[in-house]
Amino acid sequence: MIVDARQSGESARDYAYRILKENIISTELKPGSLVSENETAAKLGLSRTPVREAIYDLAKVSIIETIPQKGSYVALIDPKMVEEARFLRKVLDVAVIRLACQETPPEILEAMEDNIDLQEFYLSKSNAEKIYELDNEFHRLIYVAAHKEIICELKSNMLIHFDRVRSLSVETVRDMKIVADHSGMLAAIKEHDEEKAAALVEKHLSRYHFDEELIRGQFPEYFK
Amino acid sequence: MIVDARQSGESARDYAYRILKENIISTELKPGSLVSENETAAKLGLSRTPVREAIYDLAKVSIIETIPQKGSYVALIDPKMVEEARFLRKVLDVAVIRLACQETPPEILEAMEDNIDLQEFYLSKSNAEKIYELDNEFHRLIYVAAHKEIICELKSNMLIHFDRVRSLSVETVRDMKIVADHSGMLAAIKEHDEEKAAALVEKHLSRYHFDEELIRGQFPEYFK
DNA sequence: CTAGTAGTACTTGTCTACAAGTTCATTAAA
DNA sequence: TTTAATGAACTTGTAGACAAGTACTACTAG
Questions:
Q1: How far B176 CA sits from the closest chain A CA (Å)?
Q2: Mind telling me how many Å the CA of A85 is from chain B's nearest CA?
Q3: A202 with A161, same domain?
Q4: Interface test with chain A among B47, B61, B80, B151, by most A beta carbons within 10 Å
Q5: What pLDDT does B166 receive?
Q6: Candidates B57, B82, B87, partner chain A, best to mutate (most A CBs within 10 A)
Q7: Is the pLDDT of residue B195 over 80?
Q8: Which of A43, B41, B74, B107 has the most Cβ atoms closer than 10 angstroms to its Cβ?
């Protein structure tokens, strides 16, 4: 497990959650592997309690399976679960961008513009990790514009299933297109064009296609 | 706080979660009131650990607010949060019933029929509580038909905001209509009529209108 | 009488110990 | 050799103690 330092102001629970989530998405913690509360606590320099709470959070969206008195395991990749995550994202993203088209405060529009500028900057630097972060933040801004922050939070937990298979896919020229998609979405929001925005979101999400057969061929032992 | 007995097979955490949720929805635990981990643990005959976990779950959907070293409080009724819950329910219910219209296994259709029969039975007995349970179960069956069980679970957590204001509203002749709505939905699913089903869901949800001004007038101190 | 301070009684955050169950390897008996 | 029993080493579930911070009360000094 890759453990980077605890950020200042981060509670033990949040720290454990962040590290576990990162390691599950990157499959540094392999699907099916045991995540012991004690072992994790030792690695993070914490006690069991906050680690346990973080594991429980992850278990709530079925990305970790806890069997009483036996152990907590990173869930195998379950195409049904990936589909649930994809579905949730699509349905909510479309519904929320429609709201954002109706009204988005100028300061959010500015934040979106700044975000896209940064995306283009890191695109020129080929910094995929930064683009990933900015991508998430851009979509979160749409939820903020629609006053749906809690829903955004719920969605992001479920998205772990999605992000994990995404991290297993070899993607090359995708970043350029997604930055362009974001520009299009911002334009649609400014123009109050719901239909255009909704169509863009659908197209955008289709870029994160999950080629199950390909990944299953490469990592058959990761699948349910 | 009203505490009924722990069900067999129910973990301490689930028990604490269930009791807290019921008391928050019924406003037996009043908005703004303190929910002490120690006090709750004592009342339920548990230790702090499972109670703490339950409180944390509720805090994740902002129905409880925990202030470090100060206390955990039942959230005041926040119209924004009620709206987020209503929005989540509407968007997901519509999307999911569309899927169910495409294909629903016969055993689920049977379960839906049985459920509606029971609703009609309890309607004749004027048993509102049983109808409430069957209502929830009916909608859950739609999610099962669409293979979206986890999403249903996520939704139900958020719905606490919605159910709480619902429990504050005096509703009289609503039950008859909602049972009829359910029959209509089942028919639409059988006929694979997505548009009809979606329209019915929208109409159905409009019956749970939240008359903010009325409730605010009655319980101003419950509001944010 | 007022202002400030110390103390008390709470709160949550974290840690540690113990209870109870599972798994697996080792050992002894058939 | 095979099989069954036993115990050790794990796991999570729960409980309770301590740390640290907040709020309020009562007392003391001016």
A1: 31
A2: 8
A3: yes
A4: B151
A5: 87
A6: B87
A7: yes
A8: B74
* Amino acid present at B75: A
Looking only at the bridges linking them, the beta strands covering A71-74 and B71-74 are unpaired
Nucleotides of chain C in contact with protein CB (under 7 A) are: 10-17, 20-23
Beta pairing partners, A72: A66
On whether the CB atoms of residues B98 and B143 are closer than 8 A, the answer is no
DSSP E strand boundaries for chain A:
64-67, 71-74
> Å from A69 to nearest chain B CA?
13
**What does pTM read for this prediction?**
0.92
Residue A70 to residue A58: CA distance in whole angstroms: 17
Range of the domain at B41: 12-74
pLDDT of residue A134: 93
Q: Cβ–Cβ of B147/A84 closer than 8 Å? A: yes
Same domain, A62 and A44: yes
The tens digit of pLDDT for each residue in B46-105 reads 999 999 999 999 999 999 999 999 999 999 999 999 999 999 999 999 999 999 999 999
* Domains of chain A: total: 2
Q: How far apart are CA A112 and CA A102, in angstroms?
A: 16
- Asked if A160 and A96 sit in the same domain, the reply is yes
pLDDT, mean of residues B139-164: 95
Q: Do A57 and B61 touch (CB under 8 A)?
A: no
- CB neighbour burial string for B134-168, b if at least 16 within 10 angstroms, e if fewer: bbeebbbbbbbbbbbebbbebbbbbbbbbbbbbeb
Tokens (6 digits) for B205: 């949800």
Which nucleotide across the nucleic acid strands is nearest to B10, CA versus C1'?
A: D13
